[in-house]
Amino acid sequence: MSMNRRQFGKLAGAGALSLGLGVVKGSAVFGATRPKVVVIGGGPGGATVARYIAKDSKGKIEVTLLEPTKRYYTCFFSNLYIGGFRKYESIGHTYKVLATKYGINVVHDWAISIDRAKKTVRLGGGNDIPYDILVVSPGIDIKYDSVPGYSVEGSRVFPHAWKSGTPAQLLKSRVINMKEGGTFVMLTPPNPYRCPPGPYERVSMIAHHFKYHNPKAKIIILDPKEKFSKMPLFLEGWKRHYGDMIEWHSLSNLDGLNRVDIANMTFETGLDNFKADAGCVVPAMHGGRIAREADLCNDQGWAPIVPGTMRSQKDPHIYVIGDTSVAASMPKSGFAANSQAKSCAMAVRHALINSRAFPARYANTCWSFLAIDDGIKVGATYKAGKSKIVPTSKIISKVGESHELRQKTYAEFFGWYNAITKDMFDTKA
Ligand SMILES: Cc1cc2nc3c(=O)[nH]c(=O)nc-3n(C[C@H](O)[C@H](O)[C@H](O)COP(=O)(O)OP(=O)(O)OC[C@H]3O[C@@H](n4cnc5c(N)ncnc54)[C@H](O)[C@@H]3O)c2cc1C
Questions:
Q1: Which domain holds residue 128?
Q2: Which residue is closest in CA terms to ligand 1's atom 41?
Q3: Total structural domains in the chain?
Q4: How many Å apart are CA 284 and CA 142, to the nearest integer?
Q5: 185, 184, 194, 403: which is closest to 301 by C-alpha?
Q6: How far apart are the CA of 401 and the centre of ligand 1, in A?
Q7: Position in ligand 1 atom list of the atom nearest CA 364
Q8: What's the pLDDT at 32?
């Protein structure tokens, strides 16, 4: 379906109104014949792919970015905000430069459906936008019912804070206001989930706060897994920095989780009940709803892709990047989404304007903070294999590393934050 003039005027107006002259400039220079790319989602996947397609095609491709929020708050570094290392405002970024410098038509609205036959995306406002290629990067949705007793309402008591935005502020206030000597319970998610070391970094940052403000507090981790990312490094670091404050339990040793009793703030397992004074529940997750409803996902709710291009295995005109995609062996991370976006941008430009394409190369590093001047990391580089993305090299921090090395790793994490947010939004962190 093509847009009529009124609809286009409305859409262009929305972008121009909120973001300056992006739409006007693009349309005036190249007219209506440019191929059209629509990107759903303005996180590390979507913002990066939009920017790279616009930048490297030098205006030959018309790029529209759909993102409901005007300010994107990164999940990465939200743990540092909770631990008191960053101000909340410092992890928020706008899309202004993408519009004004790169001519991207940034539309602050939801994509509510995709018509794959007509190659259009319907917006919350009612308009349909046509595309030649659609890039889908909506991140994750939380499966509330994967934790018995938990719900959207329950997340006000035990916030998950696993998506961008204000729940991180709610969680921080729960941590800060927990009663003296109280118990914080953290329920971590089952695999696969976004940011494998993230729950354990969160525990480190909460422990860091307690160490200075509530030293008799306890943290109990209830984990549906038997092991987790960088486990020996976290366990060693917790002991060193926080003594006996943190207790980790695999739920398999407690006969599983029966339910979370929100009213009584209790976690009931097969063998024991854990009463919380504050807590965080991170349930299982799946790919963003827009991708699931467009039938781009498998039975588990993740979208299979072609490893060399990130093109959907279900639709040759759609690419899926970031957390929603099945990009195994890569973890679901902001670094990975940003890396996939660049290969995807190259493939999209090749498909639309026949620009040069090279074999895809991917990379990821996940840093985590244990305490001041103590950072650890795990990372790998990857190439496209026949049926999946395969690692070509790996690195991981080691137990017992020198203080100087940990300090260096800690500093790297800050450098990476500035670099990735610049790469996504072309703004200073
Ligand atoms: C606590 C925590 C710590 C983390 N730390 C790190 C870290 O240190 N390093 C790291 O690399 N990664 C980290 N991550 C993971 C990282 O945040 C995610 O992997 C990354 O954000 C995924 O990017 P994405 O673009 O796929 O999705 P998102 O960042 O979730 O972006 C998706 C965007 O799509 C938008 N959207 C969704 N649906 C629609 C729709 N229908 N229409 C329009 N827009 C839509 C959303 O509003 C959102 O802005 C962390 C995550 C958490 C929770």
A1: 5-139+288-358
A2: 111
A3: 2
A4: 6
A5: 194
A6: 31
A7: 11
A8: 57
C-alpha of residue 43 to centroid of ligand 1, in Å: 5
Is the predicted pLDDT of residue 228 greater than 90, yes or no? Answer: yes
Distance in angstroms (rounded) separating the CA atoms of residues 315 and 301: 16
Q: What is the pLDDT of residue 220?
A: 98
Same domain, 279 and 149: yes
In short, whether 195's Cβ falls inside 6 Å of ligand 1 is yes
Residues 6+ apart with CB under 8 A from 336: 322, 327, 330, 362, 364
Give the model's confidence band at 28: pLDDT under 50 very low, under 70 low, under 90 confident, else very high: very low
Q: CA nearest 198: which of 76, 35, 83, 111?
A: 76
Q: Residue 301 corresponds to which tokens in the numbers above? A: 């709710």
Provide the CATH number for the domain around residue 228: 3.50.50.60
106-164 pLDDT, tens digit each = 999 999 999 999 999 999 999 999 999 999 999 999 999 999 999 999 999 999 999 98
Q: Quote the ligand 1 centre to 263 CA distance (angstroms).
A: 30
Which pair of structure tokens corresponds to residue 119? Answer: 């190659």
Probe target for ligand 1 pocket from 325, 333, 370, 413, with the most ligand atoms within 8 Å of CB: 333
Residues 134 and 166 in one domain: no
323 lines ligand 1 (CB under 6 A): yes
Residue 396, in any domain of the structure: no
Q: Where among 245, 263, 284 does a domain terminate?
A: 284
Mean pLDDT rounded to a whole number for the chain: 93
Give the 3-state secondary structure of 303-356. EEEECCCCEECCCCCEEECHHHEECCCCCECHHHHHHHHHHHHHHHHHHHHCCC
